[in-house]
């Protein structure tokens, strides 16, 4: 039985079990809202490519997630956002990096896919392309929030690249931004799509590119599945995590659940990554080897889940 399905994430990392309510509840509420938005779009017959873009745009606009408005700062106190999107049936895809003024990077990635012969545009060229095609932009100060200035200051004091919820002091535990946002969807005709967006790491080197815009690492979709990854980008790139899920299904005959679990397990040491994935026949998998992963999913048969930590 083929049915629609959707899964989304707001990042994986060392999310403390005692995360304060004022940090947990807004994120859970946002996940629920974005899930409802995606489900409504799928039910109304929208293509999964449109659905994943719509959901990731909404996550980018939410300041509590590390993408778009909530993007963390580089070592120089600037924002460098990146995103990618992929259609499973055609394998058409688009990716962008080094964005400083584009409100919704995922939509620019789709414009690259649809309006150029290329897949990936970055930095000044991507910004110029955004302006030429009427993508919504704002002054880069829009993205620089007081919270992220404080996170950068904290990371610099401890001389580290701060990732996800890994916080160097107990006083501000759970206050560093989570890694990425992403969405995968399949419709009842088996069309698949994946989209992912991020601001990267706190205190990252200017010019650093992570897994999010790398097709096959942070984002992948084909005729079998759609995958969006989150976590430590360097590990995810080395392990080509998103493509690995599809390859295990295609060449090993594994189920989506088996393939996704194995790809995450093989990505590196504990604390490395998580994925959300859907298959062409409406299965969902959301494994992670981090302490937690903000995630949500729904399927046509009525199953819904919104969670942060492991279920057992």
TrEMBL record:
Binding-site residues, substrate: 208-211, 230-233
Matching CDD domains: Asparaginase_2
Pfam families, sorted: Asparaginase_2
Active site: 180 (nucleophile)
Catalytic activity: Cleavage of a beta-linked Asp residue from the N-terminus of a polypeptide
Highest taxon listed in the record's lineage: Eukaryota
Group of enzyme by EC: hydrolase
Keyword field: Autocatalytic cleavage, Hydrolase, Protease
EC number(s) stated in the UniProt entry for this protein: 3.4.19.5
GO-annotated molecular function: asparaginase activity; beta-aspartyl-peptidase activity
One Gene Ontology term from the biological process aspect of the record: proteolysis
Gene3D superfamilies linked to this entry: (Glycosyl)asparaginase
UniProt site positions, description: Cleavage: 179-180
Assembly and interaction partners: Heterotetramer of two alpha and two beta chains arranged as a dimer of alpha/beta heterodimers.
Protein name, as recorded: beta-aspartyl-peptidase
Source species of the chain: Brassica carinata
